[in-house]
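A.,

Following up on our hallway conversation. C-alpha cells first:
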C-alpha cells in the first residue's frame, strides 16, 4: 500500500483533506493497493503539496477505473513563522513579499504533463494563505540556517479547476503574440524564465503548442490549431 499516512502528513495536507472530506465521504480508503486521501461519491480526491512525480504510478492505476481530482495548493500569500531554539521565546511571524500564482502548478505538473489529458483526471489548483513554519538547522559561520518544517493553512482564496492543458494555456493565450518564446510566456505569466520553460514543456506535451523555429538559441513556438 502506498500513502503519506496520517501519522506522517503535514498540517497543510491534513487541513485540505478535512476540507474535501464532505459528509458521507471516506478517508484513507485502500483502492487497488493504494491508500487514497478522500473518496466521495465514487470520486477519489488526492492531495499533493509537492511534485506530482511520486504519484505517477498511483494515478495511472486509479485513473483506469475511477474519476480522480488531484488537488495542489499554491500559496498566494505566505507568512513566515520562525521557531527558535528556546521554547520559552515566542515565535516570530512576518509576511513574505513573495506571492504565488496559479502558474506555479507547472513546477509540479512538469513531471506528469501528459496525464492531464486523461478524461478521468481533474486538477484543482487551490490558492491559499499559508503559514510556513521554519526552525533553526545549524549555523554557517555567523549566519543562522533555517529549514521549513511545516505549512499551515490559514485560508483558501480561490480554486482553479483544470480539465486539460488547454485550460491552462487559455490563461496566457491572449497575452502571447502569434509566435513566441519562453521569454514571452514568462512575461505573460509574470513569472521567471525557469517556470516559463516548464510551462512550455507542459504545453507541448499537452498538444496545444509546437516548435516552429529558433531565434538564436531560443525555441520559437506557435499554437496548434
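Then the amino acids I'd put at each of the 225 positions:
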Amino acid at each position: 500500500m502506498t500513502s503519506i499516512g496520517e501519522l506522517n502528513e503535514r498540517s497543510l495536507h491534513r487541513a485540505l483533506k478535512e476540507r474535501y472530506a464532505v459528509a458521507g465521504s471516506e478517508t484513507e480508503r485502500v483502492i487497488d493497493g493504494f491508500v487514497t486521501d478522500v473518496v466521495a461519491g465514487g470520486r477519489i480526491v488526492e492531495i499533493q503539496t509537492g511534485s506530482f512525480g511520486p504519484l505517477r504510478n498511483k494515478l495511472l492505476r486509479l485513473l483506469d477505473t475511477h474519476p480522480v481530482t488531484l488537488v495542489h495548493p499554491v500559496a498566494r500569500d505566505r507568512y513566515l513563522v520562525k521557531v527558535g531554539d528556546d521554547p520559552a521565546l515566542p515565535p516570530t511571524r512576518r509576511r513574505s513579499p513573495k506571492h504565488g500564482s496559479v502558474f506555479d502548478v507547472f513546477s509540479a505538473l512538469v513531471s506528469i504533463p501528459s496525464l492531464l489529458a486523461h478524461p478521468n483526471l481533474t486538477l484543482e489548483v487551490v490558492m491559499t494563505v499559508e503559514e510556513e513554519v521554519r526552525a533553526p538547522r545549524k549555523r554557517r559561520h555567523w549566519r543562522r540556517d533555517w529549514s521549513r518544517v511545516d505549512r499551515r493553512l490559514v485560508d483558501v482564496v480561490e480554486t482553479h479547476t483544470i480539465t486539460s492543458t488547454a485550460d491552462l494555456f487559455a490563461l496566457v493565450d491572449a497575452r502571447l503574440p502569434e509566435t513566441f518564446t519562453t521569454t514571452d510566456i514568462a512575461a505573460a505569466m509574470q513569472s521567471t524564465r525557469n517556470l516559463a520553460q516548464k510551462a512550455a514543456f507542459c504545453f507541448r506535451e499537452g498538444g496545444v503548442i509546437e516548435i516552429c523555429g529558433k531565434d538564436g538559441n531560443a525555441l520559437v513556438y506557435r499554437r496548434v490549431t
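The first strand starts at residue 26 and ends at 27. Curious whether your intuition agrees with the design.

B.
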